[in-house]
Every structure is written in structure tokens, then in C-alpha cells.
Amino acid sequence: MSPVFFWLASALMLLFGAAVIMNRNPIASALSLVVSFLGLAALFMSLDAFFIGIIQVLVYAGAVMVLFLFIIMLLDLRAEERRKINLVAFAGGVAVAVIFFGQLCLVIGHLRQAKQSFPALPLNHPDDVRSVGLLLFGNYNLPFQIIAVLILVATIGVIVLSKRELR
Amino acid sequence: MSATAFLLVTSLLKILGIVFVVILPMVSYSVYAERRVSALIQDRLGPNRVGPAGLFQPIADAMKFILKEDFTPAHVNKFYYWLAPCLAMVPAIMTIAVVPFGSTLFGVPMVIADINVGVLYVFAIASLGVYGIVIAGWSSNSKYPFLGGVRASSQMISYELSLGLAVIPIFLLVGQLRLTSIVRYQIENGWMIAPFLGDPTNVWKWLLTIPMFISFVVFTIAIFAETNRLPFDLPEAEQELAGGYHTEYSSMKFALFFLGEYAAMITGSAIIVTLFFGAWHLPLPWWDHPHGFHWLLIDGSLGGWRGILGGLFNIFVFFAKVAALLLIFIWVRWTLPRFRYDQLMRLGWVFFFEIALVNIFIAALIVAYMPK
User: Fold this and answer.
1) Beta-bridge partners for B296
2) What number is the ipTM of this complex?
3) Which of B97, B133, B208, B352 is 20 to 30 A from B15, comparing alpha carbons?
4) Which of B127, B134, B135 comes nearest A63 by C-beta?
């Protein structure tokens, strides 16, 4: 895929990623996060990973964020907008971000593999749904099943906790 | 012309053709059909004044929408109030991109984007459609629209599950998500709604009909819920919410919601036709001398005018099937009363989710033991 597409999608992602934390309005933040997810999905698709890209849209942008929005809409937004910026926390956050970025640059600078360019992908488009499925249910079958049980337990836990509160 | 330029030009032509020549006229005439059929069901006449049998009524409706005052209430959140109608319209039209609406015409495949994740793309884009409704409900800053928005979000999430699970038996059978492959499979082995058509002597194919039919029923009902059609139109529910999420909208902005809803209905029908009714495939009974009686497959692969006629015939067949399904949508709307909200949620989570889940196991068992 052309580099123009890559820069466009990543600019979209970063811009709206920044908008998530800049916005004072939680609804605006949530919607910015949705656009950021769409940018990420576009990046996956430019790597021919259509399955991952589509799942990104379907699960995160289409389902998880709708639930987030659902909760946020029930909050009192005026209280959120009136809240003042905590300067100490702001400075701390910026410091953490700068330190993290510096560390990232350092690691990439020292890593030999980061400097070599990868060979271009072969042009025949791989059937990525099939390969992801074979990997998940072949090589990683046991971890996959264990994760499934974990999620089930978490779901049951949530239901038990919320039912208890009702009584 | 280079291959890329050719792809670009043909794709652009297909997009313009599908949106402006097919979808938008189909939307306006399904509104007309809705009013005429509802009148027929309720023993009235319906709109029959503008043109012969009222056929120019959609043009009059469009003029009315454009000429009305576009009023923005003072208490709304302006930016999101403007954004919402666009978000309601766009996903409904975008989903048609992966639907194969014909075989080939002049050698060009009649599908805008033949991607390998086909159906998942449809689900992903359709799931974004809820933002238009939720944002409209929230930004209107008033009670009833807000309730409509909240209802829409929980309803869509609940029914997306059964929607996704209901089509898994088809993937088990075909082994691919690509919609053109699913259509190809149906041409060779019989439509999904009736797999025995491909080979009536095979008992396994008859057995396969059971999970496929359950799939079809669950999928169709979930599409009703996804497109907010009666009996599941809780987000608008005129009688309880005074129009729900679009209460505060007027003129063209309201029209966009309206168009979005009908466009979603058309794309939903197109997906059902593609998955279960063989898309553009319609075999004709044929008789000629050396072969005797047989079923004739018409597509655009023949040379000369026969190929062009075949391609056009396939496109016509596809949209005729879609129109038939639209009539069923309308028929259901004017026959069944609205569900209560808790009934809707119960139906989604307690019945359809489980039915679709068990159905996957039945289909998997049959597919596993079916001789190849």
C-alpha cells in the first residue's frame, strides 16, 4: 500500500488519540477514541491483515465503545466539564510520556533488528481468516481455551456482584 | 488503460451506479410501497394522487423535505446535532460495497469490493450505524430522544450477537467468509435456504436444511432488530417516545434518518438474499435437442450480446429478490404489534442467542459427518 495511506491513517489515529485526552467532554473523548480505532483498523488493512482490521472495528469501535458511550451518557456531564486541570498531575503525566518516549527511542536505537528493512510482502493475498483460525485452534489451542474459561469466570463474577447489590 | 486506472474507473462507476441509480430510487420507492401496502392492509387507498397510481409521490415527498424549514432548537449540542444524521446515513450505504449484486457485465465482476472478510465487514460497518442514533438522542438534549438513543444502543448490541452466531453454519459449510465464494457455493450446491435443491437424492442435504432454516429465521429477525423495524422499533416508538431519537429533527436532517433507515433495510435484505437465496442466481428451465430438459445457468460469461443480457438479467434477479424481501419487511410491520422493551431484551438474550448457539453445534455435527 502507498506510504501516503500509511501517513494519513497514522496521522488520523494520533490526532484523535490526542483528542481523547484533550477534550473536556467525555462524549467527545469517546467518539475521538472511535475515530482513532478506525485509523488503527485502516493501518492493519494496509498490511493486508483484513481480518484483524475488521475485528478491530467490529469489537472495539462497534461494541465496546457503544457500551462506553452508553455509560457516559448517563453521567452528569456539566460536573465533568467544570472540573479544573490539576497542574501537578498534568506535569507528572507529561513527564511520564516524555520519559517513555525517550526510552523507546533509546531501545530502538540500540536494537539491530530495528534498523534492517523487511522484505516486501508477496503479492498473492494470504487468506488471513484461515491462518488466524488455524493458529488459534491448532498451535495455541490450550491457551485459547484457558482464556475463554477466564472470561467466562469474569462474566459470572460480574453478574454475581451486581445481583448482590440489588438485594 | 493500466490495470489500476481501469479498476479505479470501473469501481467509481459501480459505486455511482449502485448508490444513485439503484439504492436511492429504491429507498424512495420502498417508502411509497410502504404507504401503499399499509393502505392495502388497512383497507385504505394510500397516496394515489400524484401521477398514475401515485407513482410520482416520492418526488413530491422529496420536494417537501427540501422546502421545509430546517429548524435547529436552541437547547441542542450543535456540532453533534449536525453530525448525527450523516452518521446514520453513511454506514447503511457503505455496507452494500461487498455485496455481489450481479455476475459480470462486460467482463467486470459486479461487486464493488470483493474482500476476503466479506460478511464481517458488513457486521462491522452496520455496528457503526448505531452511533448516528445514539448521538442524535444525546445531542438533542431532551428526554424522549435520549431514551430512544439509550434503547438503540442496548438493542443493537444484544442483537448483533445472534446476528453473528446465526451465519456461522454457512461459514462451516462453505469454509470461507468471502461473499462471492458463498454465492459460487450456492450455485454449485443449492441455495442455503434449501441445500437439498442441489442434490435431492442426498439425505445429508435434507438434514442440512434444518440448521440452515433456523439460521435464516434467527438472522432475519435479528436484521429486523438491527434496522429498527417494527415489531422492534423501540428506539423511535411514536406512541411512547414521540418519535424517539429524531423527535427534535426537521426537514432534510430528518429525511437523512429516514433514508438511512430504509437504506439499512435494503442492505439488510441484500445480505439475506446473498447468504440464503443464492444472490443473483436463478436457474431457468430449458429444453434443447441433444441434452433434453435441464436447468440453464445464466451469467455474464458468454460472449457478445448474450453475455451482456445475462449480466443485466443477473442484476435484475438480485434486486427483484431484494424487493420481494422488502415487501415482507413491510408486510410484517403492518401486521405485528410492537414488543415491550423487556420482552425484546429477553427474546434476544434468552432465546435467539441460545438457539443460534445450539444451531452451530447441529450444523457442525452434520458437516463433520457428511460424506464429501
Assistant:
1) B284
2) 0.78
3) B133
4) B127
